[in-house]
Amino acid sequence: MSDLNVAIIQSELHWHDPQANRDAFDQRLTKVDSSVDLVVLPEMFTTGFTMEPQACAEVMDGPTFDWMASHARKLDACLCGSLVISDSNHYFNRLIWMRPDGSYGCYDKRHLFRMANEHHHYSAGESIEVFQHKGWNVCPLVCYDLRFPVWSRNRQNYDLCIFVANWPAPRVNAWDTLLRARAIENSTYVIGVNRIGRDNNGKDYVGHSAIIDFFGKPMVDAKSDPIVAGATLELDKLNQFREKFPVHLDADEFHIA
């Protein structure tokens, strides 16, 4: 199968209330089509973007991990989003990639948002991850990572790049622009899932979650409404474009220290 049916969920988040957020997403996940292969939730979808990890961190076999495994199994789809995780005496903004069979992968946010002092509260990830699902290679990243194109550079090792976020309203133009840039420069599909509403720090979020094709054109543009939306990504069309327009052959070599 060369097509991948994806769904995004854009919603408000309850501050520091994982159970309330899980309950809310329970309802939204009932609206996901049965044909979907991958569902993407926002960054820190159980808490909002918090700098108090000691108040709400979970462990890897905690309630949200189990909740994700249960929904992935019911949907027969991968489910991903980030949450606050305590692991080996460190806190991480960790994206969990939950598979339908209960196996999983993780990506720890590399670029911590210093303007909110995230780097004082969380440990940074050290490696990029690419997960396989139904013949697709998928690279999941988190929010501020979007501003660092070297980190997300496609070395012909992924077909879809995902950014989960709590990206505030004043900088939403940067979000819109950079999502499209990442798709164009990497000849890849891009999914960006942001939250909406106001958090307990008085920060406003206006969403603009999107599914973008390899030309940088939105297939789904969620605007600022709560929404469950989907699209079908076509691997054959992506590969045909890469063969016809192989910009990767002229890419510069580099090494990340």
What's this model, at a glance?
The chain is an alpha/beta fold. It has six helices and 14 strands. Strand 10 and strand 11 form a beta hairpin.
Written overview of the protein:
The structure is a single chain. The chain has helices spanning 18-29, 53-56, 63-75, 118-121, 172-186, 235-244, and strands at residues 3-10, 38-40, 78-87, 90-98, 104-108, 131-133, 136-142, 160-164, 189-193, 196-198, 204-206, 210-212, 218-221, 227-234. The protein is of the alpha/beta class and 257 residues long. The strands form 3 sheets. Strands 5-4-3-2-1-14 form a 6-stranded mixed sheet. It has a 6-stranded mixed sheet with strand order 6-7-8-9-12-13, with helices on one face. Strands 10-11 form a two-stranded antiparallel ribbon. The radius of gyration is 17 Å and the shape is globular. The N and C termini lie far apart (37 Å). 42% of the residues are buried. The mean pLDDT is 97.
Described by strand count, sense and barrel closure, the largest sheet is:
6 strands, mixed
Given the helix and strand composition, which structural class is it?
A: alpha/beta
Name the helix and strand elements from N-terminus to C-terminus, one letter apiece: EHEHHEEEHEEEHEEEEEEH
- Outline the low-pLDDT stretches: none
Number of helices: 6
What oligomerization state is this entry in? Answer: single chain
Anisotropy-based shape: globular
